[in-house]
Amino acid sequence: MARILITSAIPYINGIKHLGNLIGSQLPADLYARYQRGRGNEVMFLCATDEHGTPAELAAAKAGKPVAEYCADMYAVQADIAKRFGLSFDHFGRSSSEQNRHLTQHFAGKLDEAGLIREVSEKQVYSNADGRFLPDRYIEGTCPNCGYDHARGDQCENCTKQLDPTDLIEPRSAISGSTDLEVRETKHLYLRQSAMKDQLDAWIDSKTDWPILTTSIAKKWLHDGDGLQDRGITRDLDWGVPVKKGDQDWPGMEGKVFYVWFDAPIEYIACAKEWADANGKTDADWERWWRTDKGADDVRYVQFMGKDNVPFHTLSFPATILGSGEPWKLVDHLKSFNYLNYDGGQFSTSQGRGVFMDQALEILPADYWRWWLLSHAPESSDSEFTWENFQQSVNKDLADVLGNFVSRITKFCRSKFGEAVPEGGEFGAREQELIAELTRRIRAYEEHMESMEVRKSAQELRAIWVAGNEYLQSAAPWSTFKEDPEQAAAQVRLGLNLIRLYAVLSAPFIPDASARMLSAMNTLDTGWPDSADAALNALPAGHGFAVPDVLFAKITDEQREDWQTRFAGTRD
Ligand SMILES: [Zn+2]
Q1: Mean pLDDT computed over 339-357
Q2: According to the model, what pLDDT value does residue 142 have?
Q3: d(CA 289, CA 4)
Q4: In the predicted model, is pLDDT for residue 571 greater than 70?
Q5: How far is the CA of 155 from the centre of ligand 1 (A)?
Q6: Ranked by mean pLDDT, which of 58-67, 160-169, 230-239, 276-285 comes out on top?
Q7: Mean pLDDT, to the nearest integer, of 502-531?
Q8: Residues 6+ apart with CB under 8 A from 392
Q9: Which of 19, 73, 243, 490 keeps 20 to 30 A from 13, CA to CA?
């Protein structure tokens, strides 16, 4: 039994995620976790909310709540939606947890001991009206280049020129609009990534099985221009992990917090401790997943994320781990995704454009979305959601192919043989041919799933469903029955066993429908079909079943048009 640690990029706390976020990390990670569990492997699947930083503070202010209360509320909302989408995390944690605070401070202390932290004095804009330092992007003013009057302190959105806040004409706080700003001296900690460049470079070079997309991004950051830069890991904010050296104070850093990008990936580790603490486990129980000196040396660690997160996962987080000098587990494989676009444009959280996770579940059950999103995962390039394509894919793959197969064979059996697997007859040449095809396709499905080729896995699964339908069409037990009821019984027996086989193979994609298929077949046998032949004899003659309700309803043209209109605008 292999041991597999899986983490999904952690979603930011300020609002409900859209379907593009979902397919970019959490959903394919869930697919992989469910598959590996289905194969009998030991899986630890972790995700969390990313809660620190200025955007959370501002979202809380907008909601009229203290930031800790806002985060607790939004965490509950995100956890509930994740559950309803069938995301099977072993634990869904919070980066604001006490466990992460402790571990983040611990890492900072170790990095400092290793001589990898330096203090830097900087000049930063302070807003007297807001009583706080302003991050560059929260300073607005007129662009000196094009005259656009809402340019941000880091960049002008209009002409794309990179800016310093001091370049802006008539700068003001984007939070309060106040122009009572001054430049103050402040001190920050920098992680000396430049000192670790060769170590990181060698580590990336050792990853010969990583996709070029991933290694090329890491190499670019390592070598372009002056090479890998040191990185500020602290901020002048209230909301975050207080800067400490382990459990000791850090002189001169009072009142400051770690930068959200420093503490967020550490939550991958802290989340396992949260899991242990929440489930009455010991430290040894979670450390065997993360500490190579405590049992994690045989763990395979896989991360899922959008392509924009690759630099942080290939360089910054590994720099934290390697720099600590402690034997923490490093990522073994990293699966990154391109972007999903929405109906001719981009999904946008800030503009409320596209379909959000809560809205999706208001109109259809999770499996419909899971199937479409996974079978159209933006792997080799960006992909696009359109309502036409969604309707077509659901109606064809789920309703016409899979749902129809289940409905036809169970109803036919009930009408001719009753609600039990019929006995008599034997599998002939046609059945052996199907078994050979299924064997070949199941092995291909396993290979694609192992290598996290999400679209190819979906294509193979669809082909497996189609093979059953084609068999049923050509065997035509409703015709056979008239001349040779024994042979029809064998055909129906095979068909009913195929439903169980489909339930097992399809569970990573469509877990609810799979559970309903197993329930209809009145079985708890989720054994993986190592042999298609054996799997098609799993339910013996006489085994009772029930005709299930319609598995997947078709999407009508009226519904499609209605949803198209409803989601054309922006949400409140
Ligand atoms: Zn400009």
Answers
A1: 88
A2: 96
A3: 9
A4: no
A5: 8
A6: 276-285
A7: 98
A8: none
A9: 243
C-alpha gyration radius of the chain? 27
What the block records as the tokens of 245 is: 């050296």
Instruction: Give the separation between CA 526 and CA 79, rounded to whole angstroms.
Output: 27
Q: Say what the pLDDT of residue 217 is.
A: 87
Ligand 1 center–CA 143 separation, angstroms: 5
Instruction: Give the pLDDT mean for 446-459.
Output: 97
Rounded to the nearest angstrom, the distance between the alpha carbon of 149 and the centre of ligand 1 is 8
Distance (angstroms) between ligand 1 centre and the Cα of 110 equals 43
> Could you tell me the pLDDT band of residue 352, with boundaries at 50, 70 and 90?
confident
Identity of the amino acid at 340: L
d(CA 510, CA 380): 23
Write out the two tokens for 364: 């259809």
Six-digit token string for 368: 């419909």
Measured CA to CA, the distance from residue 173 to residue 133 in angstroms comes to 10
What average pLDDT score do residues 73-83 get? 98
Element (H, E) at 414: helix 404-416
How many whole angstroms separate alpha carbon 109 and alpha carbon 132?
26
Distance (Å) from CA 140 to ligand 1 centroid: 12
Q: How far is the CA of 17 from the centre of ligand 1 (A)?
A: 30
Q: How far is the CA of 330 from the centre of ligand 1 (A)?
A: 42
Which of 491, 501, 499, 489 lies closest to 471 in space, CA to CA? Answer: 491
Looking at residue 570, what is its pLDDT?
66
For residue 263, which amino acid is it? D
Distance separating alpha carbons of residues 248 and 538, to the nearest angstrom = 61
**Which residues make beta-bridge pairs with 102?**
none
Percent of the chain with pLDDT over 90: 86
- Flag whether pLDDT at 350 surpasses 60: yes
Please give the mean pLDDT across all residues of the chain.
Answer: 95
Q: Distance from the CA of 154 to the center of ligand 1, in angstroms?
A: 11
d(C-alpha 330, C-alpha 285), whole Å: 18
- DSSP for residue 94: E
CA 166 to ligand 1 center in whole angstroms: 14
Rounded to the nearest angstrom, the distance between the alpha carbon of 171 and the centre of ligand 1 is 14
Amino acid 373: pLDDT:
98
131-153 mean pLDDT: 92
Burial class, 216, CB count within 10 angstroms (exposed 0-12 / middle 13-18 / buried 19+)? exposed
Query: What sign does the dihedral 272-20-302-460 (CA atoms) show?
Result: positive
CB distance 51 to 71 below 8 Å? yes
Kindly give the distance from the C-alpha atom of residue 227 to the centroid of ligand 1, in angstroms, as a whole number. Answer: 28
Q: Tell me, what's the pLDDT at 432?
A: 97
Instruction: State the residue for tokens 């697997």.
Output: 421
* Ligand 1 centroid to residue 136 C-alpha, Å: 15
Q: What's the gap in Å between 162 CA and the centre of ligand 1?
A: 9
371-400, pLDDT tens digit by residue? 999 999 999 899 999 999 999 999 999 999
This model's pTM is above 0.90? yes
Residue 41 in 3-state DSSP? Answer: coil
Distance 448 CA to ligand 1 centre (A): 47
Residue 214 pLDDT more than 80? yes
Distance in Å, CA 150 to ligand 1 centroid: 9
- What is the C-alpha separation between 529 and 552, in angstroms, rounded? 24
